Amino acid sequence: MMMTLGMFVFGLSTAAYQELQRQTDWRQQSQSRVGRRAARQFLGPGADTITLTGTLLPQFTGGQQSLDDLRDMGDQGDAWPLIEGTGVYYGTYVIASLSERKSEFMRDGAAQKIEFDLKLERLDEDDIDRLASNASLRALATGLREALA
Predict the structure, then answer these.
(1) What percent helix, strand, coil does the chain show, rounded to 5?
(2) C-alpha angle with apex 128: 125 to 130, nearest 5 degrees?
(3) What is the pLDDT of residue 59?
(4) Which of 59, 68, 46, 61 is nearest to 118 (CA)?
(5) pTM score
(6) How far is the C-alpha of 94 from the C-alpha of 31, rounded, in Å?
(7) What secondary structure letter does DSSP report for 3?
(8) Which residues of 75-107 are buried (b: 16+ CB within 10 A; e: fewer)?
(9) In this structure, which long-range contacts are made by residues 130-133, counting pairs with CB atoms below 8 Å and at least 24 apart in sequence?
(10) What's the distance, CA 23 to chain centroid?
(11) Confidence at residue 139, expressed as pLDDT on a 0 to 100 scale
(12) Residues 6+ away with beta carbon under 8 Å from 121
């Protein structure tokens, strides 16, 4: 297991990523002053975005179904806990976007190579309304069990 987003497990059998990019911003408001540089006031944390980039080779690793499962999670609009395989807890994240590129097609149109970019954006822990419900987690777990069977 490389990482989990809610009940979705990133790994060779689902969606292994080759790159994790994280960008953290802080809000610094500036105030213009005459004859001096602008003054700045720290307002708190800003956006915290993680982008996972990977390549799937459906004949060896996860395939289209894994990306469809992530897309279904994004359609729910819920926030999910993001935990690295080493135990590092990143916080709760929503799926902001998922892009995929298919290439090296078989005769029937099936792609032998699927590249993806998954963009996750962090929510504050006190934004309880957006956290995934137990029903959402149960539905996702059922879907994962069926996909792995």
Answers:
(1) 20, 55, 25
(2) 100
(3) 86
(4) 68
(5) 0.79
(6) 32
(7) E
(8) ebebbbbbbeeeeeebebbbbeebeeebeeeee
(9) 130/77, 130/78, 130/79, 130/92, 130/94, 131/78, 131/79, 131/92, 132/6, 132/76, 132/78, 132/79, 132/80, 133/78
(10) 13
(11) 56
(12) 47, 48, 49, 93, 94, 96
Please choose, from the candidates 67, 78, 73, 84, the residue with its C-alpha nearest in 3D space to the C-alpha of residue 123.
Answer: 78
Residue for token pair 């929503």: 94
Rounded Cα distance between 99 and 118, Å, is: 7
Q: How many Cβ atoms are within 10 Å of 64's Cβ, its own excluded?
A: 14
3-state secondary structure at position 140: helix
Phi, psi angles (nearest 5°) of residue 53: -120, 130
Sign of CA dihedral 55, 59, 62, 66: positive
For residues 122 and 47, is the Cβ–Cβ distance under 8 A?
yes
Structure tokens at 4: 């989990």
- Residue tagged 């926030």 (tokens): 79
Nearest Cα to 127, choosing from 83, 93, 76, 88? 93
Listed as ranges, residues in the chain with pLDDT below 50 are: 147-148
